[in-house]
Amino acid sequence: MADQDNTPVENDDDKNVSLAGGDELIDIMAFDEEAEPEPEIEGSEALEALQAENADLKDRLMRAMAEAENQRKRGERDRRDAEVYGGRKLARDLLSVYDNMQRALDAATDEQREANKSLFEGIDLTQRELILAFSKHKITPIVPEVGDKFDPEIHQAMFEAPVPNQPAGSVIQVMDTGFMIADRLLRPANVGVSSKG
């Protein structure tokens, strides 16, 4: 077996040197004399300065991470709100369609219903479809009953009147159905409220 020559052989890029017979490459740039040496820490003042800088950088990093987490949570909340409440304006506009259908059904007499049975069945079915579409988007009706206690969170008092045998502050008439969208009020139910006799 011939002796191997152990003289260094230069590469084309003149940055690495390989030793004949070896698989390792030695990076000449690692031994560059012009590279600035790390400053040596001398004395307790330099150590304290480095520790203060380290604490400041750690504080900034923690604040940046907290801000990024807050941004992520805000973005997630905004996305959820947009999914649930994004159609609020359209839903509010469609409430008048619901109201008009309800008025048509309420205003019809029994004779009119019999004479135009298929027409009123169509209106009723269309209103049910609208309510079904509302429920798919978490829009639910608020339908108070006569005698229910007035709740200012979900009811709007249109008038007050004394009514015998009704306690003050109870619903005596329902004029318009109210609606919720998820857990928020879309429109209050318009009601008449009993006052003190």
Automatic annotation (TrEMBL):
Its main location: cytoplasm. Keywords: Chaperone, Cytoplasm, Stress response. Residues 69-82 have a biased composition (Basic and acidic residues). Pfam families: GrpE (PF01025). It comes from the Bacteria. Residues 1-22, 61-82 are annotated as: Disordered. It is found in: Cytoplasm. InterPro entries: GrpE, GrpE_CC, GrpE_head. The keyword Lipid biosynthesis does not apply. HAMAP family: GrpE. Belongs to the GrpE family. Participates actively in the response to hyperosmotic and heat shock by preventing the aggregation of stress-denatured proteins, in association with DnaK and GrpE. It is the nucleotide exchange factor for DnaK and may function as a thermosensor. Unfolded proteins bind initially to DnaJ; upon interaction with the DnaJ-bound protein, DnaK hydrolyzes its bound ATP, resulting in the formation of a stable complex. GrpE releases ADP from DnaK; ATP binding to DnaK triggers the release of the substrate protein, thus completing the reaction cycle. This is Protein GrpE. The gene is grpE.
